[in-house]
Write a structure and sequence with these properties.
The structure holds two protein chains of two kinds.
Chain A: E1 4-15, E2 18-29, E3 33-37, H1 44-51, E4 59-64, E5 67-68, H2 74-79, E6 82-85, H3 97-102, E7 108-109, E8 112-113, H4 115-129, H5 144-157, E9 162-166, H6 174-189, E10 193-198, H7 201-207, E11 210-215, E12 218-224, H8 230-238, E13 256-265, E14 274-282, E15 286-290, H9 297-305, E16 312-317, E17 320-321, H10 327-334, E18 335-338, H11 342-346, H12 353-358, E19 368-369, E20 372-373, H13 375-388, H14 405-417, E21 423-427, H15 435-450, E22 454-458, H16 462-468, E23 471-476, E24 479-485, H17 491-498
Helix pairs in contact in A: 14-15
Chain B: H1 2-28, H2 33-46, H3 48-73, H4 81-98, H5 104-133, H6 137-157, H7 188-205, H8 207-217, H9 219-225, H10 229-256, H11 267-277, H12 285-305, H13 311-326, H14 328-349, H15 355-358
Helix pairs in contact in B: 1-13, 2-3, 2-12, 3-7, 3-10, 3-11, 3-12, 4-5, 4-6, 4-10, 4-11, 5-6, 5-10, 7-8, 7-10, 8-9, 8-10, 11-12, 11-13, 12-13
Classes of the chains: A alpha/beta, B mainly alpha.
Chain lengths: 516, 364
Amino acid sequence: MSEYVVEMKDIVKDFGEVHAVKDGQFTLKKGEIHSLIGENGAGKSTMMKLLYGMYPITAGEIYINGEHMTKLDPKIAINHGIGMVHQEFMLVNELTVLENVILGFEPVKGMTIDFDKARKDIQHYIDRYNMEIQLDKKVSQISVGEAQRVEIIKTLMRGAEIIILDEPTAVLTPQETGKLFEILFNLKAEGKSLVFISHKLNEVMTISDRISVMRQGTYMGTVNKEETSPLDLTKKMIGREVFLNIEKDYSKAGEKILEVKDVWIPSQKESSKIRGMSLYVRAGEIVGIAGIDGNGQSELIEAITGLRRVEKGSVILNGKDITNKTPRRIRETGLAHIPEDRNTRGLNRTMSIEDNLVAVELDKKPFTSGIFMNVSEQDKYADHMVKEFDIRPADYKLPTSSLSGGNAQKVVVAREVSMNKPLLVASQPTRGVDIGAIESIRNTLEKAKKSGAGVLLVSAELEEIISLSDRIIVIHEGKITGEMPAGEANENNLGLLMMGADDQVETDKEGEKCHE
Amino acid sequence: MSNSLNGAVKILITLALALGIGAIFILAIGQSPVEAYGALVKGALGTKLGIGNTIAQFTPLLLTSIAFAVAASAGAFNVGVEGEVILGGITAAYIGINWGFLPVPLLYLACFLGAMAVAAAWAYIPAALKAYFNVSEVCVTILMNTVALYIGSYLVSGPMSAGTATPQSDPVLVTIPKIMKPSSANAGVFIAIAAVLVVIFIVYKTKWGYKLRTVGTNPTHADYVGINSKKVFINAMLLSGMLGGMAGCIEVLGVHGYYLDNFAKDLGTNGMLAALIVKSNMLFTPFIAFFLAVLKAGSMAMQQATDVPKSIVDTVSAIFIIIATMEFVVSLGKRRKMEHEAKAVANIGSKKPDDKKTGKEESK
């Protein structure tokens, strides 16, 4: 038997025309934490989904505990001690944590489920790894961090010795991430082998024993943590150096472009999710809004852009009251908006790149004349935009559904930024796009600011908020918990504010995102 | 272009399958499918009367199918076309009987406009309920069809009755000339074709159509770029209603010359079938409508010439729609092709990934 619990050799995986993995290599030693890093679309998640048996491999060999797996599906994988914590949690919101953990593996006593035994079994793991989990809460009521711990417990309950974590920190605050790492170290100490998928280099450098890099579906090599550096890893990941830290010039903030005065905004489920929020954005500055997902960012942005009704308070854009005006009116008053969800909101995926590029200004000359669309003008414009923003492929008649995440986002950014509106609202502008696109999108935002636009930036990536913003506003549960110049911000003080701590109160308590 | 070609091939495969399964049924009752289908085609297209019958069937189907397809392209599932046909018909009849004070050309116009206006108003109800109160337009339109049916029945049995044994109205003062007597094919077919061409043009070439398609494919995106998805949704339903009303008007003025109770039976449903078979693709819908018309028109001849009951035709169109909506024929083929390619790539490419094919290399 070899020293590896998992060996993946010469893996190829195609999805139709798309070569998701071209040359995948991966090994996992017992009791190590092995990070798999790469840009989005590099094939790291795919590799691990192959190992978990979610798709069949096209070519290559997979060995688990030395056994050559000729056939693999999640059931077989679980039986071989593999567990996976997916990026999107696979939990049933309306069931309790306890029910979720035993779902599909319920211990039975006669005809009924033996909840007592289940509870005891789960408690055993909770104590052993020092996890905080409330077994009787519904999943919809627990925080993201806790849901993730539930996922980990689930894999343990099914006897996992090898646990794959797919971008586990993407949804966590720095504090929650710290907590997760403690658990992972505990698991490692118990002899479990862990695969940690990420593209955040600082985390990878903290937690890993070994690090494997993938780029465009191809294995780029494995290094021990001690022998590498973030810079080195970046180069391996993208094949060149990247400059994400953009030079900031915060001298020329001008007049207030956007003013939000004491607004109250409902969410889908509850009224008054945002309770009395006030903020402003000046011309020539980037204001970043930091906060854990779901604390009112989306509602705030939708209210400003006219996609959600405001209960009370007012929104003033360019000196004009735009409270509860239609999106069209607000856009005409001077707003461009990069929405957080490019696939359903930002783009119409069934339509072409060109159609999407002209969507907002379609009604205006030169894109229409009379009631007809002026296709040749649209072609000209699309051609220009595709070149200027380096959208690939450059065939602007293709549907946007065929684009990669980064290029799809470039279409949205191109459309919104090129209108040169005085206010640019950018919500999660770089979520799920590769590093090359991140760099170009960040530069575009910076350029918009330099040209005198006010930019309101919402991002779940603290690093992005800190490096781009001039001023940072932190929100928690629909309220502003702090505001500071970017120079004073770091992951620690922002993280505390994101969990609702006041400036003065020192606390290291876990931020629960529960109901009131 | 190759996309629509692909679509056409797919429809033909589905069609062949449906006819094939229909043939099995015909065999099962001890008849020859070749003979039966032959008689059907001959009955529908082989004689002047047959062609006339086919055109007569085709005219309302063309309008109702496009009516459904227009609504569908804005995301509405408008089951209510039938009700719109009925109300359009009764309105055309009312105007055609009572507005004799108008000069003839204007009377024609009034019949059409009146029918379209009333039908559109009828369609407005489910549209507004859906847009502003999120009430399922499917439920509302199904229910409203029954209401429309009884409104029509009431009017021709009571206030508008000609006093005959069958519930029907007095004859209208203006009729659309028949073009292939003795069949009931009439010049309305040209009006229908012209209307459909205009609608197709609007949907694919104007900014109004662009908005319609945007709302139909992604209403969230539409609202975000500043298109009022509710308004567009309602407009699409209005247009759908107008087409239904037009169909009713043509039936009353062209086929019957008076309002006949229950004249619209299945017109809406069959139009919906035609549109559903091609997923409301407006370029293909007319052809399917024509095909269904051929089936309908030929079925009687088939029943007379052979011992195959004409209900076999309903079986074939039912199978047709089941297969078409299942979409498994083509996806099966595609998967096989993909597996094939995957194997080929794996064989040559496992060691040496083909970089050019991915076209994703970093340029810098």
